[in-house]
Each structure stands twice: as structure tokens, then as C-alpha cells.
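Example 3.2
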Amino acid sequence: MRSPAFWYAPIGARAVGLMPLALVYGAVEALRRRLTTPEKPEIPVICVGNLTVGGAGKTPTVRALAELLRGAGHQPVVLSRGFGGQNTGPLRVDPTRHSALETGDEPLMLADELPVYIARDRRQALRAGVSDGAQIAIKDDGFQNPTLAHNYNLIVVDGATGFGNALLLPAGPLRQPLAASAPRIDAVLLVGTVSEQNRAAIAAQLGLQTTRVFTGELVPVAPEPKRVLAYCGIGRPDKFFDTLRACNFELAGEISFADHNMFSENDAARLLSEAQALDAALITTEKDLVRLRRPEAGSQLAALARASDCLRVKLKLADADGLRADILSKLDQLPH
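Structure, written as C-alpha cells:
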């Protein structure tokens, strides 16, 4: 879903008006936690989660952690719910055979580089990985899901927006009260341009020492700048458009779709027509381009996939060695 602007503004009438629903949401979320006993994993599980709705940089973080673990001699697998895909799993994603419609876009994107297992119940994804010989797993999202315990919880926070107004859905962006989340957090990764004051504020909100707050920056991997029509279906489209401008692209137009949008023939025809009218090339995100794989030959979607360039992002950690050492030192701690 696209995050409404009032979540990241001082608490006003819209947020106050939604607080009764937030109280109901909070009560249901708390009841689920109380009634569920988390299953202890057979192998170490590192959860990459966030506390808010919307993109914070979890997928680049999963890639970066996998690289860190490989550098230490581990071969991690990724566990995903397969959000947006029709296959309920358990299934190992095959990027040469599956489509985003089957598996969801993020698992398919990660499967280009890593073994990825999807299942609506991530415990089943974990069992499938273990049966294939997995020794360590990175769980993509699902910090708030109480069914599976984790050996290490890394929470990704957008440095530009933090926790917004710090209210629960739908009055604010929080998936769970900060007080309920904080005791299970091992470390925070603050992504973006971050000051020490911002870092200290996030630590204080969670009751953590600032040493538990790591930082990183999403570095764009962009093609040659040119005049473009930019389009995307992500949680915070403005981040994509602003990144293109920062990379010296000339934006002739911007078109945003719903998060995880599965593009239709009409969508493709519209984008191709508008790009031609604007005399602009087409560019989108890596996640959106994944959703254009395996189109029907001769279709508008096939033409859009051929015509679209892609902006990738890579996470650059300020203290990669420190984060890796912290994770490795805690893999034997009791799952929580």
C-alpha cells in the first residue's frame, strides 16, 4: 500500500479520527501474540523486518546480509511469504521458470542470486529449506508474525521518515506498538542520510543503546542519465523519482501505480504511448521490471519489458564488519 502523508506529519484530525480503529487493530494484534507460541527454528534464523508499513529497504538489506554471511563461510537461504504471488508454497523459487504472478516480485528478484523458499506459513518455507540442507536462513519480513521465533532480529528503518507519528495502523504506520517490539530487537539498521541526532532519537524511542543502531545508504546503480518517463508500483514512489533526479535524469513524466501492481496490457499500452508522445525512454525499478518477466510474445507487456530500463539500488553499510560480527556472535542465542 502507498503510505498516506498524514502518517508522517504531526498528529492531526485524520489520525485522531482513525484512533478508534487503531485501538481495535492493536487489541487484535496483542491477542494474537498472547495466544501464539512461537516455534523454535531448527537452524539459526535472522529476521530482516521493519516496524512500519511501506518500503524501508528490507530487500537490499537481505542481499547485503547474505553477502556478509557468505563472506564468513555461510550459505544462507531466504524465507519469504511470497506476497503478491498465487502459489501458496512451500516452494523453492526458480527464476528461470516462475513468474512474479506465481511467487511475488521480491522473492523472484532475490532468487536471481540466492536460494529462496516461499510459503504463506514461513515455518513451512523453513522446513523446505532445511530438507534441502540449509544451515542458516534469512527471513524477509515477518518480524511481527509470532508463529516463528528468530535468533536475531534486525529492524530496518527509513532514516527520512522514522516511525512517523508513531501511531498504530490505520492512524499511523506502525504494525505493532514500539513497546511490544523493542524487547525482541537485536539491532536497528537506519537507512539513508542519517545524523547522530537522528540515530540517537531512534535508539531512544526503542530504549536501545546507540551502539545497537547501525547505518547504511542505498546507492543507486543507474544506467546513463537521459530524458525518461519514470514509472513504478512501490510503496513510496517519490523515493524512486527523487533518486532519478539525483542521478541527473531528466524526468519528462512520472507515473505511479499501487504497490506490487501486476501490470496489465492497458497499463503497458499507456506507458508505451506516453513515452512516445514525450520522446522519452522508459525507466522503472528492479522490482517492477521483475513483474514484467515472461510476458506473452507479441503483447504490449512484452514491448514494455523490452523498452524499459532499470534503476537498481545496493545497500552500502557504514560498519559492515561490525554488523556481521554482531550477528555471528548471537546466532547461538535462544530464539525469541
